[in-house]
Amino acid sequence: MTTMKRVLVLAGDGIGPEVVREALRVIDWIDRRRHVPFDVQQGEVGGAAIDAHGTPLADATMALAQEADAVLLGAVGGPKWDALPFAQRPERGLLRLRKELQLYANLRPATVFAPLVDASTLKPEIVRGLDLMIVRELTGGIYFGEPRGIELLPDGQRRGINTQVYTTSEIHRVGRVAFDLARKRGSKVCSADKANVMESGRLWREEIQKLRDESYSDVELEHMYADAVAMELLRRPNRFDVIVTDNLFGDILSDEAAMMTGSLGMLPSASLGDQRADGGRKALYEPVHGSAPDIAGKDLANPIATILSLSMMLRWSFDMHTEADLIEQAVEGVLASGTRTGDIMAPGMARVSTTVMGDSILHELDKLSA
Ligand code: NAD
Ligand code: IPM
Ligand code: MN
């Protein structure tokens, strides 16, 4: 018997609802055409939650997320809420979800679809065939370290404080995810840190090395400074297989990696917690991009990152590899046919809206499964 997949959908702000709508159509397609029942609940996060409930994530929504098999999120934030105090900003809603669901491993795969080789700002020969996985630590580091805040000094100056902290176990658990992934891919891990200037970076390097020597001696490990990784990503991205790094470096390096794929609108992500004894795990899936206020509400956004995030959900939460493959093939087929949203537009191609990109992917899914 196929069990019901309980998915909580939090569309959020800006282009969030627009890109999530297209992913919902794909869920509906799988439900109808592949006979896999989905129970989709919807809730608010970010600015939408502030407007509806006065907080970026209501406790009731947090409880729904705890109960769901998986969460699909659009994006949060926007100019309307930028002046709010820190603890009330839309972004806090997303950070609370990550922290309370203990989603410490954020997988951000940068793969270049063959038809998009020319869409990157980098030369085709640099990005062709790229397939790298960034594993970003997501619940620790400078995003959450204490002390933090803005304080007033006696001389009238203000001081902003954030603290970078990592413990051995935080480093090991995300390291294990990276090494396990590498075993299923190219067996190579690059760990990015600033061990030359930060004690937490020194600890990161030592503990990742220890983990490799004790449990993953079959996997090749190299350590690099994060600034050098930023440079190498532009010079020779194909040299990387899995990159494991902390919360802040992972945030920055993944936006950089997105540009290999053509656009931020192409990069999906999965945020995972520990695997439970029953095989399940808490998980949240979201595009790497934000709410894109500059194009919000205009039906211009690229929904592919969100649709590929759904495909990651099918793989990681539901073991539905056939359907995940189908979605990725449909995306590739649509791109090959020259259908493009503005962000991945190229001469001679047809520029389409968010909705038409969704239509095209559904049409391709129909064709593939006919
Ligand atoms: P952004 O990712 O929203 O936009 C950066 C640029 O990429 C913009 O030019 C935008 O138009 C473009 N872009 C992004 N996604 C696109 C898509 N799907 N299709 C086409 N073009 C796309 O980053 P930003 O402008 O720095 O941040 C805007 C807001 O989003 C801020 O409030 C920020 O905090 C928030 N944000 C949220 C998330 C998230 O929810 N996970 C991630 C990043 C930023
Ligand atoms: C991301 C975003 C978030 C982050 C913000 C919105 C909290 O940039 O998911 O990459 O910094 O992690
Ligand atoms: Mn980011």
Topology of this protein?
Layout: E1 5-12, H1 16-33, E2 38-43, H2 47-53, H3 59-67, E3 70-75, H4 90-100, E4 105-111, H5 124-127, E5 131-137, E6 145-152, E7 158-163, H6 168-183, E8 188-193, H7 199-215, E9 220-225, H8 226-235, E10 242-245, H9 247-258, E11 270-275, E12 281-285, H10 304-316, H11 321-336, E13 339-340, E14 350-351, H12 354-368
This protein binds nicotinamide-adenine-dinucleotide (NAD), 3-isopropylmalic acid (IPM) and manganese (II) ion (MN).
Walk me through the structure.
The protein is of the alpha/beta class. It has two domains: 1-103 and 267-370, Isopropylmalate Dehydrogenase; 131-259, Isopropylmalate Dehydrogenase (3-Layer(aba) Sandwich). The chain is 40% helix and 21% strand. The chain contains twelve helices and 14 strands. The protein has helices spanning 16-33, 47-53, 59-67, 90-100, 124-127, 168-183, 199-215, 226-235, 247-258, 304-316, 321-336, 354-368; strands at residues 5-12, 38-43, 70-75, 105-111, 131-137, 145-152, 158-163, 188-193, 220-225, 242-245, 270-275, 281-285, 339-340, 350-351. The chain has a ten-stranded mixed β-sheet, with helices on both faces. A two-stranded antiparallel ribbon has the order 6-7. Strands 13-14 form a two-stranded parallel ribbon. Strand 11 (270-275) and strand 12 form a beta hairpin. The chain binds nicotinamide-adenine-dinucleotide, 3-isopropylmalic acid and manganese (II) ion. Homodimer. Keywords: Amino-acid biosynthesis, Branched-chain amino acid biosynthesis, Cytoplasm, Leucine biosynthesis, Magnesium, Manganese, Metal-binding, NAD, Oxidoreductase.
